[in-house]
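During the reporting period the student researcher (J.K.) took over the structure-prediction task from the postdoctoral fellow and processed the backlog of single-chain submissions. One of the processed entries is reproduced below for the supervisory committee.
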Amino acid sequence: MKYCAKISLLFLLLTGTLAAQFVPAPVQLINTPTVATLARGSYLTDLRFTTNGGVLIGATVGLTDRFTMGVTYGGSNIIGNEAITWNPQPGVSVKYRLIDEGMKKPGVSVGFSSQGYGAYTDGNYEIPSPGFYSVLSKNWHFIGNTSLHAGANYSLEQPDSTYMPSFFAGAAIELNPQFSLMIEYDAALNYEKFSDLKKFKISGGYGFLNAGLRVGITENLYLEVDLNNLIWGENVESFNREIKLMYFDIF
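J.K. obtained the following C-alpha cells:
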C-alpha cells in the first residue's frame, strides 16, 4: 500500500493544485466512451489502479472544442513484489464530436482507442480495446442529470477469421456535480479470440458489465471506485475492484 500512496502523491504533484473553473462532462464512463469531448485548452489526467498490481496513467487534451486526443501507458505488477510487466506500447485515443446534442436529438461522436484493460499477455489485453467506434449520448434532468450512451465499435484485437463488430451501452446519474453513479455493458462480441486461454475466460461469454461511483474531492479532483466484470466466468470467483483518480484543469 505504501507504493500506492507514493504513486498517488506523485500524481497529485504532477497535475498541480489550481482549481478548475468548470466540471466537464465525462469523456468516458468506466471503460466505454461517451460523446463528450474536452473544451479547447483543457486537459484530463487519470491514474488507474487495477488488478495484478497494475497501474495505468493517461492524459487527454482538448485541441479544439470538438477534437480530443489522449495517450495512456502502464503495466502489471507495478505494485507488489513480482517483476514488472510493462505494456508493449502506449495506448492512443482520438475523438471528434460530429453532432451536438439538441433538445430532441442525441449528440454523436466518432473516435479510435487502442487502449485495452487488464493484463497484457501474448499480444492481447485481457479486455480488448474499443478500436474504431461511434457513440450517441443524450442527457435529461431526471433525479439530477441522467445520461444514456450507446455505440458500436470494431476492435483491432480480433482473430484474422472473425472481423466482428460489437456494441456497448451505458448510463450515468449525476446527483450533483460532485457525485455520480455509472453502469455500462460491453458486448465484446470478438471475445471468442481468447476462448482457448483459460486465464482470459472472465466474461462467461456474456460480455462485460461494470458499475462505478465517482466522487468529487475538490472542484477538479475526482475519485472513482469501479466494480468491473460483474458477469464473471467459471474460472474467476469474483469481480474486479479498481480505483481511479482524475484531475481536470485548463492551460
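The committee noted the following: The radius of gyration is 18 Å.
J.K. will present the remaining backlog at the next meeting.
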